[in-house]
């Protein structure tokens, strides 16, 4: 249920955890990127059980973690561009989730054509 509702996730991930991680890495070059990467790894570990239960995840965890971490970087960038708005995080998370779900549905229903010469 949590994985389907970004409005319940993003206040915690981008509204609470991200600012704390960014303050920890403030002195470091690329501190925001490091915070976003770490948050992506934590996020992937946190929502993996829900994804396995709801979507029947079949890819290895490391692939799943890479995808979720990349999505975390995109959402963090959107939050920064909006001046720190959690509403932006919720909207971008919703858009990305919808796009991923539609892509998975499309690929599951795709048929491979055999062309003969």
Largest sheet: none
Q: Gyration radius, to the nearest Å?
A: 16 Å
Residue share in β-strands:
under 5%
Order of helices and strands: HHHH
- Number of contiguous helices: 4
**Could you tell me how far the N terminus lies from the C terminus, measured between alpha carbons in angstroms?**
49 Å
Q: Any idea what the shape is?
A: elongated
Unreliable residue runs: none
Mean pLDDT: 82
Which class do the helix and strand fractions yield? Answer: mainly alpha
The share of residues in helices is over 70%
Give a count of the beta strands, DSSP E runs of length 2 or more: 0
Describe the structure.
The protein is mainly alpha-helical. It is 76% helix and 0% strand. It is built from 4 helices and no strands. It has helices at residues 6-24, 31-55, 61-81, 86-109. Helix 2 (31-55) crosses helix 3. The longest helix has 25 residues, at 31-55. The radius of gyration is 16 Å and the shape is elongated. The model has no long low-confidence stretch (mean pLDDT 82).
TL;DR of this structure?
76% of the residues lie in helices and 0% in strands. The protein is mainly alpha-helical and 117 residues long. Helix 2 crosses helix 3 (61-81).
Question: What attributes does this structure have?
Answer:
elongated; mainly alpha; 4 helices; 117 residues; single chain
SSE topology sketch:
Layout: H1 6-24, H2 31-55, H3 61-81, H4 86-109
Helix pairs in contact: 1-2, 1-4, 2-3, 3-4
